[in-house]
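Quick entry, no commentary yet.
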Amino acid sequence: MKKSQRLCVSTIIYATLVLFFLTPFYPVLAGKPSQEEQFHAHESIIYNLIDHGLEPLEKQKIHIRIEQSAKLNNAKSIDNLSATISTAGEVFGETSDSFSGMKIPDGFSHETRDAMKEIHLFFTMGFKALEQSMGYFSQYQKNHDPAMRAAYSLKYQEGFTLIDGGVNLP
């Protein structure tokens, strides 16, 4: 082997060894995101899910339409509201399921993992309560049962209380 070839091979071996030994200590060199990057990515996923889950409320102004429905006796308005309520309930249920099945990235401290589990639980329960509230309102709309209207109000409030609790956990 020529001297220049040996130098090239030696350089390649040296570079490989340096990268091999440095990689575990520098996640950036390994191509792995840091714990902080993983946390921010996970946080972003959570906020995107919340935005998606609450979209029917903002987009359809459900709370306003529900309040007005008591005053409306128009069949077309009631049918439109029924479809909106049904769709919102489905989105709330899907969002609850997404939080329930969400995996917490490996590598976080025990305290961070526990906090994230608690946050996921608050969101899971909050969106499930909103889903149930839509079911109660749908029953109220069909039967005009004041108990279903009260159950809707309680579950709706419970849902937002839980979601707010998840957002405001330390």
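second:
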Amino acid sequence: MLLSRLAEHQERLDEMETRLLDAKDGVDQRLVVANNSLRKLAMEYRGQHNDVVDQVTALQELVAELGALQGMQDAVLSGLKEDVARMTVQINQLQAAQSRPVRRSVQPASSVPTIKPVAPSFDVTGIELRGGRLFVAVASQGAQALNQVRLLEEGESFAGWRVSRVGDRSAEFISDSGVVELAVQ
């Protein structure tokens, strides 16, 4: 009887050992799965953490840029306020000056001499457009040859007269004696 009981216990022990080994294999498999899940979660966390760090860095850069822009805006606004204050003072001064009566001594029209400019000693023979710029062709009065014609543009002078404006059919000249507009002849 003792032997049969011992055999029974041995059988139970073998059964329990088999169950323990099966349970251990199941636990090992679950541990592998859990370990793989933890690794995957850790990698995802690192990726998300890096993304968050990048976003925080980008936000900090934006905040710095906004601060610089705010400083520039404040400086411009301050300058504009100073300009407005200065212009307000000038406007007030102008309005005050305009409200005061102005005393002018007016001379009779007969006493003011009218000065007629001396006529230039040349004629306008034409207007030319070259390279998108207007030129006036002038020649001394009585000129007979083409080589006596000269092309002038605004700012150039001929016979003491400076070209101040060139139009389509005339040109304006200025000298010490006045302003004259000559038409093409």
